[in-house]
Amino acid sequence: MPRATINDVATAANVSTATVSRVLNGHKVTSSTSDRVWAAVGTLDYTPNALTRGVFAGRSNTIGVIIRDLNSPFYLELMRGIDKVATHDRSLVMFANTFNQIEREAAHVQTMDEQRVRGLILTTGPSTDDRTKHFAERGTPCVIVARKAPDLVPNLHSIALDNHEAGRLIATHLIECGKKSIGVLHGGSRTSQSERIDGLRETLAEYDLTLHDDVVHVAESGNDVSVALDEIFTNARAVGRPIDTIVCLTGLLTTRTYEVLNERGCHIPEDIALIAMDDFPWAKTLGITVVAQPSFDMGVEAATLITNGNDHPQHIVKNPRLVVRQSCGESEEPTE
């Protein structure tokens, strides 16, 4: 049988299509009229056309989400949080992955605009800030996740981790474990990375320990980890301070770092300690101590900022959490 239309419902209920629309959208009509319309809806098994409703409303009921890299456990948990709120709100979610490519970021923002999404959640870099700000100024709520929006305006929000505190947690734990010579792998020039390094370096300095620049190296992907580790170990040995700990400041590098160290015969934690950002399913099995981000909660809050309709700009800072396992030679029983 053909799908029932709003005209069919109107005919069956002996009302106008405008009245049917008012009933379906929760506007006030007489109880007898409402009863007739809902009875017709049930009899005809009618479902509203969301596309048509979006045209009349000037926007869809879809939340757009632009993610930098779906390989990251951080983004997977973030999306779960977004989806939970969207499902409760009876909204759809449109995900787009940029693969860390700036040109794809701009293209996806443009596409979300063309689709008239009800709101936009982004984990993109600064290259899209002007376009996102313009999006918000035209009335579409936008939330930048994992960094602070540089210029908050109405409808533009941001949610970020206290990255300086994350670095401090790493340094404090390593000091408690007796570690003194630390090498760092980080993901590049993003603000989150530099803030974590600052927190790590400043806390080490409080204990008269120095994080030297020659053992802090970029690995933009897992393919770069082996070369970056070579640089760290070579530079440290050249000045007589062998590395006793590797710190991964982005979750994407953790598994590959673990693999490379094992391939080289380094036993964790007996030969070298390992601590990383972001928890992931295999971290517990591998015994890796991590500083976890509340990425699921960040997703929930980001989606809630979209659905609650509050246009007052907000910047929300979330606290990291140390998850102690065995990879730093902890002397106590691991806890979570």
From TrEMBL:
Q: Report the Gene3D superfamilies cross-referenced here.
A: 3.40.50.2300, lambda repressor-like DNA-binding domains
Which branch of life, at top level? Bacteria
Domain HTH lacI-type, chain residue ranges per copy: 4-57
Q: Which GO terms describe its molecular function?
A: DNA-binding transcription factor activity; transcription cis-regulatory region binding
- Cited Pfam families: LacI, Peripla_BP_1
Q: Known InterPro entries for this protein?
A: HTH_LacI, Lambda_DNA-bd_dom_sf, Peripla_BP/Lac1_sug-bd_dom, Peripla_BP_I
CDD domains this protein is in? HTH_LacI (cd01392), PBP1_LacI_sugar_binding-like (cd06267)
Q: Which UniProt keywords apply?
A: DNA-binding, Transcription, Transcription regulation
- Which PANTHER family does this UniProt record tie to the protein? HTH-TYPE TRANSCRIPTIONAL REGULATOR GALS, LACI-RELATED TRANSCRIPTIONAL REPRESSOR
Q: What is this protein called?
A: Transcriptional regulator, LacI family
- Organism in which the protein naturally occurs: Brevibacterium sandarakinum
> Taxonomically, what lineage is the organism?
Bacteria, Bacillati, Actinomycetota, Actinomycetes, Micrococcales
